[in-house]
Amino acid sequence: AQRVTQPEKLLSVFKGAPVELKCNYSYSGSPELFWYVQYSRQRLQLLLRHISRESIKGFTADLNKGETSFHLKKPFAQEEDSAMYYCALSGTGGGNKLTFGTGTQLKVEL
Amino acid sequence: DTAVSQTPKYLVTQMGNDKSIKCEQNLGHDTMYWYKQDSKKFLKIMFSYNNKELIINETVPNRFSPKSPDKAHLNLHINSLELGDSAVYFCASSPGGNYGYTFGSGTRLTVV
């Protein structure tokens, strides 16, 4: 079974402060992990994939298989980062089903 | 050019009615999905089709029936709507592999 846990429903930080959105997963095989972002009342957008090891909008995420984590980080939060962030896992087979965490609402305050 | 488009964007209807939501993708992807986002923003997969064939059917009431006339379209028909069906329904498509999904803008369904 695939499971994704995002322990924080809401994370509030000040502009310029570092951000870390936590994500832990449970999967017996080799997972593919993603972060999606949803700005207010908009569609979900792919933010980054662990396999591409890229940095998008200043965000990075490193897959730690030992801790089964894929935390999303940004050194300096911007006001436009305020959004809902979802961590998601895709296992092998099964139609590449994406299992989402419950999401973390990031609020960047001035 | 919208990659994944859903219609309608908003749908308000009475309990007991039957309604459909349409989804089209112009990305040439083989796989399409329906997800439900509830009032707590939780996203749960409902169905997945690969090249018109149903491959994922999660525990969803049989009042919900997906239909895929071709690989670019995946529609969702809902019979006998209930208050608990109120949610945002997202369509998505994927090229397969692990490239992630492209989502539509969602259909906000309100059952009154």
Residue-averaged pLDDT of chain A = 91
Question: How much of the residues of chain B is beta strand, in percent?
Answer: over 45%
Overall SS class of chain B: mainly beta
| Biggest pleated sheet of chain B | 7 strands, mixed
* Oligomeric assembly: heterodimer
Distance between the termini of chain B: 34 Å
- Total count of strands of chain B: 11
> For the terminal residues of chain A, how far apart are their CA atoms?
41 Å
Which regions of chain B have little confidence, pLDDT < 50, spanning 5+ residues?
none
Q: Provide a count of the helices of chain A.
A: 0
Bin the helical content of chain A: under 10%
Broad shape of chain A: globular
Count of extended strands of chain A: 11
- Chain pair with largest interface: A-B, 23 and 26 residues
Q: Report the sheet with the most strands of chain A, covering strand number, pairing sense and barrel closure.
A: 6 strands, mixed
Amount of helix of chain B: under 10%
H and E string of chain A: EEEEEEEEEEE
- Total helical segments of chain B: 0
Rounded to the nearest angstrom, the radius of gyration of chain B is: 13 Å
Rough outline of chain B? globular
Beta-strand content estimate of chain A: 35-45%
